[in-house]
Specification:
Shape: elongated
Strand order of the largest sheet: 1-3-4-2-5-6
Helix content: 10-25%
Number of strands: 6
Distance between the termini: 91 Å
Structural class: alpha+beta
Strand content: 15-25%
């Protein structure tokens, strides 16, 4: 203990001397312990010393963004072994990254209930049993440009239908880079949703039902 700070209220000198004496008596029982010697966790002898900095400086990149040359400081002999086809590329800028345009339409809560599993056709029931699908598993109907002449117009009609809860438990996604519309629904209601899509959007040809990890399993 090197220093003791005593806080007191200003008053007479006699009171101050009394406080100092009391403090000394209180500190006498405390043992004076010298601080322990510092022992580093690593050995200090010269035989076990390790360099703090690397022996060679790091290579420097030239102003053109290429590999270091022989005339530049900090160049090692390893740069001569770099193939000519290896070049440093700058990261893509925002203009070079292709933009993915997507639009989502989420269904609202509605009291409209679709029919039960008894509406499944015999063919679809066999597929559900074959692939061991859960009736509440999500699947998607894929609408392409072969089904409609104007994909954007079909998307607008579908968005209005979903917003007014014409397709409960469904949500849709347009993939403009693929020129496709995906309509997600439960396997339990997929046939009813498919018939509603063909009637509401006036789709031509056949639309396909896609299941995750299985692909196209059904069409109508």
């Amino acid at each position: 203990m090197d220093r003791v700070v005593l806080h007191y209220q200003p008053g007479s000198a006699l009171r101050l001397s009394t406080l100092l004496q009391q403090t000394q008596r209180l500190l006498e029982p405390l043992a004076l312990r010298p601080p322990a010697a510092f022992r580093p966790w690593f050995p200090c002898d010269s035989a076990h010393r390790r360099p703090i900095r690397p022996a060679k400086p790091p290579p420097r990149i030239g102003p053109a963004g290429g590999v270091p040359t022989e005339n530049q400081p900090g160049t090692t002999d390893r740069t001569q072994d770099v193939p000519a086809r290896v070049q440093l590329r700058a990261p893509l800028t925002e203009r070079e990254v292709p933009a993915v345009r997507r639009s989502w339409s989420v269904s609202r809560q509605s009291r409209v209930q679709l029919q039960s599993r008894m509406s499944l056709s015999s063919r679809l029931r066999r597929l559900v049993s074959l692939h061991r699908l859960h009736l509440r598993q999500r699947a998607k109907w894929v609408i392409t440009q072969q089904n409609c002449s104007n994909l954007e117009e079909a998307w607008r009609r579908l968005s209005r239908c979903v917003r007014r809860a014409g397709l409960p438990t469904c949500n849709a996604n347009i993939q403009r880079e693929r020129a496709e519309i995906w309509v997600f629904c439960d396997v339990l209601h997929c046939e009813q949703v498919g018939r509603h899509l063909k009637d509401e959007l006036r789709l031509a040809g056949r639309i396909h039902l896609d299941v995750h990890r299985l692909g196209n399993i059904f069409s109508m």
